[in-house]
Amino acid sequence: MSVDFATLETGQELSDKSYVLDAQTVERYIGAVGDGSGIYQPADDRPIVPAMAVAALGLRGIVADLGIPEGTVHAGQELDFSAVVRVGDALRCRAVLSQNAVRGETRLVSLRLTVEDGAGRQVMTGKTTLLMPGAAHAWCGRGWVCPDNGGTWRCRE
User: Fold this and answer.
1) Is the pTM of this model over 0.85?
2) H-type alpha helices, 17-154
3) How far apart are CA 108 and CA 17, in angstroms?
4) 136 touches 144 (CB < 8 A)
5) Would you give the DSSP letter of residue 69?
6) Which of 40, 56, 95, 147 has a 20 to 30 Å separation from 23 between CA atoms?
7) CATH code for the domain of 96
8) Whole-angstrom Cα distance, residue 16 to residue 58?
9) How many other CB atoms sit within 10 Å of the CB of residue 111?
10) Each residue's pLDDT tens digit, 87-145
């Protein structure tokens, strides 16, 4: 899915995903990033999930929902964790647009992130900032609408 970022308004919810963190997902995360912290103890009845695994899962949903364009730079991220998440916990991950500005040919997009457990208790909050190229372009449904050399706007598939 691709989103026309030019039409988005501050305060708009852009992603709302629910997940259950199972042991296989956590173990794949640990293997992929080489997490050697020792926080995750698979022999425990309900092992603690590394905090960054919670963040990665939340960001995965946002990326899937937004169809972030090629050339986008992940310029910054701030995360606060307020509760322990355990294997088997249900999580709800949401992203709300907090800034959508254009500077020259670059669009600056900031998202406010929240992750809640199944009881509605906040376990993570944060902010992520993206720099997107081609702010003067728009999505036409088949491709990007871009000005050609003569200044005429055309849909490029």
Assistant:
1) no
2) 23-33, 51-66
3) 23
4) no
5) P
6) 95
7) 3.10.129.10
8) 9
9) 22
10) 999 999 999 999 999 888 888 999 999 999 999 999 999 999 999 887 655 555 555 45
Contacts of 140 (CB under 8 A, 6+ apart): 155
In total, how many domains does the chain have?
Answer: 1
In sequence order, what are the residues at sequence separation of 6 or more whose Cβ sits closer than 8 angstroms to the Cβ of residue 24?
none
Contact 91, 18 (CB under 8 A): yes
Residue at token pair 């026309």: 4
Report how far apart, in Å, the C-alpha atoms of 87 and of each of 16, 21, 44, 50, 126 are: 20, 5, 10, 10, 22
* Range(s) of the domain holding residue 108: 5-143+151-156
Residues 101, 106: Cα–Cα separation, whole Å: 8
The Cβ of residue 39 has, within 10 Å, a number of other Cβ atoms equal to: 15
The pair of three-digit structure tokens given for residue 58, joined into one six-digit string: 């939340």
